[in-house]
Structure formats: C-alpha cells, structure tokens
Amino acid sequence: MSELRMRGRTADPDSLSENKEAAGEDRLGLPGEAGGEGDGDRESIAGTPDVPPSTVDNTPQFLNKVVEGLNPRWKNWWIRGVLSLAMISGFFMVIYLGPTMLILVVMTIQIKCFQEIIDIGYRVYHSYELPWFRTLSWYFLICVNYFFYGETLAEYFGALVQREESLQFLVRYHRFISFTLYLAGFCMFVLSLVKKHYRLQFYMFAWTHVTLLIVVTQSHLVIQNLFEGMIWFIVPISIVICNDITAYLFGFFFGRTPLIKLSPKKTWEGFIGGFFGTLVCGFILAYLLAQFQYFVCPVEVNSKTNRFTADCEPSDIFVMQQYTFPFAVQNILTWKTVNLYPYQIHSVVLSTFASLIGPFGGFFASGFKRAFQIKDFADTIPGHGGIMDRFDCQYLMATFTHVYIASFIRGPNPSKVLQQLLVLQPEQQLSIFNTMRDRLRDRGILPPAAM
Questions:
Q1: Of 258, 284, 283, 282, nearest to 269 (Cα)?
Q2: How far is CA 204 from each of CA 121, 137, 141, 163, 393, rounded to the nearest angstrom?
Q3: Would 417 be classed as within a structural domain?
Q4: Is residue 366 part of a domain?
Q5: What is the pLDDT of residues 395-437, one digit of tens each?
Q6: 421: containing domain
C-alpha cells in the first residue's frame, strides 16, 4: 500500500514538516490521491486496501456429504436452499415465542452486523495499529443503543417507569445522560489521536459512525415497526425474503440478461420474476395475518403482568371491506366487486418497494464489498455469507415501512397518550383532567356542572 511504501522511505518523521507529513505519511492510498482523477481505474491494483480472503468452509459435514459429486453451481444451490429453509423455520419459531424474543433477536442481529462491518475496517487498516479503534467503536455502539432503547422505554413502558423511582430518574434525564456518555467517547477519541495517523483515525471515526447510522438506527426502526403491530414486522421482513428467493430462482433457471455491473449474477429475468413473486407472496400473507388480533393489534405492555400483550379492536385497515372494480376491469374479469382487507392494498405498496427499490440495498452492499475486494461480509452462514449479507435489504425495507406507517397509517394512540399522562406530576394530571372535562361539557358529551 502507498502509505507503507511512504513510511519505508521516511525513517525520520520528526525531520519532516507538518505539511509534508499531512501529505505523505498520513496518506491512505485511496484512488486519485497519488495521480489525480485519472487513476480511478487502478483502484483494484493499488487504490484499495487488501482484505485477506476467508478460506474457512463452515458448511456442515452432513451437507457436504449429501452434495458431494455435484458441480459447484448445483452444490451451492442445494446448500443455499437447505440453509434458507432452516433460517425461515427459525424465523417462524421466533415469531411463535413472542415480541420479547423478537426484540432480542433484532438486537443480536444488529450487534453481529456491526461487528462484521467494523471487522472489515479493522482487517483493512490493521497494519496501522490505530489506538483504541475497536474499543471506541464498541463504546459508541453501547452509547447509541442506550439512547434509542431508552427512548423506547419512555415511550412504550410508561406504566412500568412510573412505579420505579430509579427508572424515573433515568427517563427524565435520559438525553442528557446519553449525550454525556457520547461526549466521553468523543473526548477519548481526541485523546487517542497520534501524530502519524491523524487522517487514518478520522477515517475510522467516520467508518464507525456511518456503520452506526446504517445498522443501529435502522434496526431500531424494526423494533418501532414491531410495536405498531406484529404484522408490520412480519410482512415487510417476509416479502424481502420472498423477493430474495423468487429472484434467485428465476435468475438461476431463466437468467440470461445481466442487470447491474455491481452484481454480475443478478439478471433482469430474476429481477422481474422476483417482482411478481413478491406481489403474490405479500398479498397472500397480508390476507392470512390480517385475520388475527395477535398480529394486527399494537404491541403494548400490560401494567399488571409486565408482559407484552396484543389485544384490541382491530382498526379499519384490518376489517374486510368490499371494493368495486372500475368498469373497464369489470369487462375483462367479469367481476364487479371483491372483498379485501385494506391492509392487502398496503401490502402491494410494501411489496412493490421490496422488489423494485429494496434490491438497491443489496447493490449498495455489493459496491461496498467490491470496493474492498471481498466476496462476503463474513462466513457466518454457509452459502449465504455473513449476517449483513442477508440483512442489507431488510434495513432499507424497515426504514421505508416506518416512514410509510408514520405518513399514511398511524393516528393518535390513546394508550401512548395515557402512558405519558401517568408520568406527569399529580398537579399536571389534574390540570389536564379539568381541561378535558370542561371541553367535553362544552361539546355536550358530559352533563353540565351542577349549580
């Protein structure tokens, strides 16, 4: 790498001026730094730090024996298929275990994805021995999770917070505590700066924060979606999985036309087949889940049992309604009306995003991997790569779902308002009570006060 060669030629760094040091010793070797914009084509030779490829085959022995003798293409197909079925089965098992287990699984996946991306940075720049890089990265992860989950605790667990004095203190000063913790990490980073590695350390500081933005922020949105109702968690994740599977199958059997250079194996046939397969999958899954309160009701905490519950009167989007086809469609289908859950129409929007825009999360991840000349983020799952390889599209989908709910679905939630009221001081609660009583009397809902 260019920096190592430069360091080899400057045995006495103290004799260099600050300008020479900034321009030479602290050079990262990125494309275009040494020779201007025209050197971009040489990225694969000298512009990209080398990441040692993983040579570990972690495929279970029984699978290797079963697929022994097959050509590599079909061998990979069977391995991916068996492991996909295993992961889907595990996903349904976690759903059966309830919201608590789902939250723990999301947190575990988030930590693993963060580790995979940080490890790439550590492997790329390991030779520089940057002080405190990994320690500070994990510290910032803890700080950001403390902030997000503290916000969730205050928003959804108001009744529990009210009973615990220690929690009341943490919730009341939560943002100040979060900022103080982050500020401590910021000061630690500044104190760890080393003269020879200024630029590299700031690259790694940015690397960590972009990773936090991509992984932690969006995984928190997954949990926010879960609290809106299990259906808003299950359907988006399931249609992304369905899109991956159908696009892979159509591409495997019918793929001929390359789709994008970032992912040479992606084809137009797989992309289009995945689109229609995802629409059908999302529409059917929405119909099945919309019939059960357990999936459609917001996930709330029972203040008596301190457990998650999903018991409510389903909202209008989960009540079967009759729709009339336009006249032109009636002539073609010979149907005048159709009975649907409104959520099925929303599922079409989600499925469209998952199949047309969602794959760009995968393309983004492919570009990242090509930039550092690696095949996968890790080798955690045989035939699939790392956890991040499976969740690159999921995070983008979770963000869209959260924005979609906030823009078109979510209305005032009486339960959340009540939880917030319960945290207030008694005199504040009494003031709100009197105000609401007077307004209800003015509207004729309550009888007028006795004279």
A1: 258
A2: 7, 9, 14, 43, 24
A3: yes
A4: no
A5: 999 999 999 999 998 766 676 677 677 777 889 989 999 899 8
A6: 413-446
